[in-house]
Recover the amino acids of this structure.
């Protein structure tokens, strides 16, 4: 069991694109376990390797609710292969302690990845559920994209960040998302 330190917004590694995993070695399995230990210890629903300072394409998710058994899921070299619809989501991130703001997300996603044994799988998450949004959020981390880059209101996001002693929104990182804007009627 190894709970790692989670790096916070402003740390350069959060903005670096992560590298593909070439082999699901014992080192990767240890990384996966460290991600789970760190995520559960911090009551998170997802955690990506760059958040513990490792720029490899790995994230873990567990969107089970308190009265359900744990549902740990591992995504290695993930790729979102289909995305549809749009939804607004109030999101936070373990790298932005206690800061929540509204972002744009796809409603439905299909993702392919390798599991913790290196076996390929495809998963679909529909209806703007926590899982659907979480998969997009964690997958973004592997490309150095952060949830605030999907903000619906930069000024509101800045206010929340400053209240939590975090650096302001990086304006040039805000994503142009015409497809989502159209769906959301913006
Ligand atoms: Zn995050």
């Amino acid at each position: 069991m190894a709970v790692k330190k989670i790096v916070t917004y402003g740390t350069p590694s959060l903005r670096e694109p992560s590298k593909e995993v070439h082999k699901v070695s014992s080192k990767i399995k240890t990384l996966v376990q460290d991600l789970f230990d760190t995520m559960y210890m911090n009551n998170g629903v997802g955690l990506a390797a760059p958040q513990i300072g490792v720029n490899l394409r790995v994230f873990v998710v567990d969107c089970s609710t308190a009265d359900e058994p744990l549902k740990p899921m591992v995504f290695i070299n993930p790729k979102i292969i289909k995305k549809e619809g749009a939804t607004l989501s109030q999101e936070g991130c373990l790298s932005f302690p206690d800061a929540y703001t509204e972002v744009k997300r796809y409603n439905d996603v299909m993702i392919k990845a390798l599991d913790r044994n290196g076996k390929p799988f495809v998963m679909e998450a529909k209806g703007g559920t926590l899982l659907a949004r979480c998969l997009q959020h964690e997958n973004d981390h592997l490309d150095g994209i952060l949830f605030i880059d999907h903000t619906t209101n930069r000024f509101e996001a800045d206010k929340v960040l400053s209240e939590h002693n975090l650096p302001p929104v990086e304006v040039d990182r805000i994503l142009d998302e015409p497809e989502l804007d159209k769906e959301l009627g913006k």
Observations:
- The longest strand covers residues 73-84.
- The pocket of zinc ion is lined by residues 93, 95, 137, 141 (CB under 6 Å).
